[in-house]
Design goal:
mainly beta
């Protein structure tokens, strides 16, 4: 385990492969030894203890700027932060790389090269903004009087899917557009593309549609009623979807499921999850409570004091795990896995009980 820990400290990307291989070989060796003892009529030795799961403390740590994490930006570990609730800035490590951003929209998307973002505006425009230069352009317009636009660009930014008609500008060129059908009583919660831009899924309130890059339906099915899709992504082989379904909106908790696209067979991987994330390269981050406080009789939420944070691979094998208790003023722990699977970002909200006695106040900023 000492050698494994040292390897993990050197490079997370390659060490995850080493961790998986080491665990498999140790298990296989134990089974072979047990089988040989039984064949010779000898009482088997007590089973060896399984290797301890490394904690997050075994990995290199890098402090990040304060702010609300919005999304990863491209494939180079750049990321977007909202620092004051009105603007979104891009960072490379701890270095801010963006000019003053014109948006605070949570619908913002990054280009695969991490050089620009795109987002819809309330005025009925889809804007492209170059992060380092500050240049911007209008890619399309739409009817702002319509209720709610759902829009999703492919990672290579060569296709856009939308639930509303888009009028493309000359700046957008001949951008292929996929019009998503409306389903009465089922607004679109999410549009999520596969990393290679070959397919995407649309999460409605009760169903999932999986479509190819031409907009043809290739799979999907129903999800449990009143279980909105809070997060979702394609697995490493792009044959299944991981879906985090929040069934208790007050507590913000629900199951993580895996559904095969072809026949829509779903299995529950974990109950009582408060946040899950994956980047499509086979690495999964999960946060879940481990205490069970007594819930009140009314509709108010009760914060969990202890959580477990885990990193798992595409087969859901546990790679890292650490339990921790939230300190005073800390809430909403979250774990975000980068698109390259080389980095995981752990964050939480932090308020000062003295300066901010009301944690729901607009003056209480994310930490």
């Amino acid at each position: 385990m000492d050698g494994l820990t040292q390897g993990l400290s050197d490079c997370m990307r390659f060490c995850l492969i080493d961790a998986r291989s080491s665990f498999f070989l140790a298990t296989l060796g134990l089974l072979v030894t047990t089988a040989a003892c039984r064949a010779e009529g000898v009482s088997p030795a007590p089973p060896a203890k399984p290797p301890a799961v490394p904690t997050f403390e075994k990995l290199p740590h890098t402090p990040m700027p304060k702010g609300e994490f919005i999304a990863w930006c491209g494939d180079r570990e750049r990321y977007l932060l909202a620092t004051d609730g009105q603007y979104i800035d891009a960072y490379d490590g701890s270095t801010k790389i963006s000019a003053p951003s014109p948006t605070g929209s949570r619908w913002v998307q990054c280009g695969a090269d991490g050089q620009y973002i795109v987002f819809p505006e309330d005025a009925g425009r889809v804007r492209k903004f170059e992060l380092e230069t500050g240049k911007s352009a209008i890619l399309a317009t739409f009817d702002s009087r319509s209720r709610g636009i759902a829009i999703g660009f492919s990672p290579d930014m060569n296709i856009v899917a939308s639930n509303q008609p888009l009028q493309l500008t000359a700046e957008a060129g001949h951008l292929p557009t996929i019009s998503l059908p409306a389903k009465p009583g089922q607004p679109i919660d999410k549009i999520v593309w596969s990393p290679d831009s070959s397919k995407f899924f649309v999460a409605y309130s009760n169903t999932i549609d999986v479509l190819d890059a031409q907009g043809n339906r290739i799979g999907g099915g129903k999800i449990r009623k009143n279980s909105g899709v809070t997060a979702g992504w394609f697995d490493a082989e792009q044959k299944s979807l991981f879906l985090f379904l929040v069934s208790d909106e007050i507590q913000g908790i629900g199951p993580l499921v895996r559904c095969r696209i072809a026949d829509w067979q779903c299995v529950r991987l974990r109950e009582r999850v408060v946040q899950a994330a994956g980047g499509g390269k086979g690495l999964i981050g999960i946060v879940g409570p481990i205490d069970r406080p007594k819930l009140p009789d009314d509709d108010s939420s009760v914060p969990y004091a202890r959580h477990a944070v885990e990193l798992r691979d595409n087969t859901f094998r546990l790679l890292f795990r650490q339990e921790f208790a939230l300190a005073g003023g800390q809430t909403s722990p979250r774990l975000y896995v980068s698109p390259s699977a080389a980095m995981a970002l752990l964050s939480w909200r932090l308020t000062d009980p003295v300066k901010c006695p009301d944690s729901g106040s607009d003056t209480c900023q994310a930490g």
